[in-house]
Amino acid sequence: MIKSSRAIGHLMDLLKVPGPSGGESAVARLVTEKLIACGCKKTWVRHDAAHNKIGEGYEVGNLIARLPGTIKAPRRLFSGHLDTVPLCRGAVPVRRGDRIVPRSKTALGGDNRTAIGCLLSMIEVILRERLPHPPLTLLFTVGEEVGLKGARHVRTADLGKPAMGFNYDGGNPARITIGATGADRWKAEVSGISAHAGVHPEDGVSAALIASRAITEVAAKGFFGSVRKGKKTGTSNIGSIQGGEATNQVTDLMLLYGECRSHDPAFLDRITNSYRSSFERAAASVKNTAGESGSIRFTVARDYHSFEMKKDSSVVRRAEEEIEKMGLTPSLSISNGGLDANWLNSKGIPTVTLGAGQHNAHTLKEYADIGEYLLGCKLALALATAP
């Protein structure tokens, strides 16, 4: 019952509208307009207050639509994120054969507009055809690309306390993601002592030297990049380094921002602590002629917790059953990236993640596979209406 032209039209409309993390108001307005045009009552659709909890100038909170059921059954949640990465700035979608691609040198935004288009197409058919369905909640999150911020701050009460969830954020509709890594986001504030670099450099303590020694030690111990210690695995990265004002001044402040990931919470702690201890040792090792050393302020926030669902859980089985009914072969996977499902599972909503045709996300080669997108729409419809 999914009309291809309608579903593709929704996706093309969504891909044209910018929605950087924190600046999702324009795309949220479009989604709201489309929900109401599909038959949702205005009273069913609202924003929550997640943006107030996030701060950072976020324009709007998560967009939530709660539909009453026509049959008695537990509420089901369907989710996707509104924001796109900066590489999508200026994207213009064009259709080429069985794909939608960016016209010029940008990313497309299929991550995650394919999910939004999929859920809009699902709701349009349900309301147009008056299909029997349990109570449904649609969650369109903000700030997913920069730490799952919308999902972190959503309240289960605002979602209607759903019994299970289906998060859309991927390519192959037959692949069911049942687990994902956990991640720490950290900041190292390295303080040195300023001095004239040409006259008396020995009076200074270089924050740049401290930072370089710390990074060298982390890498030498095997905790930078891909991390493997026996059977334990993870990753880490330093994504931003800032500091220094002039070449003739011994650098007195460096700011480094990074992340660590692992499916094992204890090993994640170990990776992150390796950074902390290396920065502390490096700070103590750099001294001026007066014997003064630098200092470190190392702060960590757990971006999201890892999870892995049981293969025989009800939400996994339901997804498998509906995929098989479509003539596809379901497969289970674990993600090395964070998903909104990380926080939804942490909040007690058993949630799997499915695909709707997005590929090569965060690159100039990003595209949306139209066939997979339409299959994702059909699967969402089946999951929303199956008794």
Brief overview, please?
This protein is an alpha+beta fold. It is 33% helix and 26% strand.
Question: Would you write up a description of this structure?
Answer:
This protein is of the alpha+beta class. The protein is 33% helix and 26% strand. The protein is built from 10 helices and 18 strands. It has helices spanning 4-15, 25-38, 50-54, 110-129, 149-153, 207-220, 265-285, 314-325, 340-346, 370-385; strands spanning 45-47, 63-67, 76-81, 93-96, 99-102, 136-141, 164-168, 175-180, 182-191, 225-229, 232-243, 253-262, 295-304, 307-308, 331-335, 351-354, 358-359, 367-369. The strands form 4 sheets. Strands 1-2-6-3-7-16 form a 6-stranded mixed sheet, sandwiched between helices. A 5-stranded antiparallel sheet has the order 10-11-12-9-13. Strand 4 (93-96) and strand 5 form a beta hairpin. The longest helix has 21 residues, at 265-285.
Q: Please compute the radius of gyration using only Cα atoms.
A: 24 Å
Share of helical residues: 25-40%
Mean pLDDT figure = 97
- Count of alpha/pi helices: 10
Strand content: 25-35%
Secondary-structure-based class equals alpha+beta
What sequence of helices (H) and strands (E) makes up the elements?
A: HHEHEEEEHEHEEEHEEEHEEHEHEEEH
Biggest sheet descriptor: 6 strands, mixed
Strand order of the largest sheet: 1-2-6-3-7-16
Number of strands: 18
Measured between the Cα atoms of the first and last residue, the distance is 17 Å
Which segments are poorly predicted (pLDDT under 50) over 5 or more consecutive residues? Answer: none
What is the molecular shape? Answer: elongated
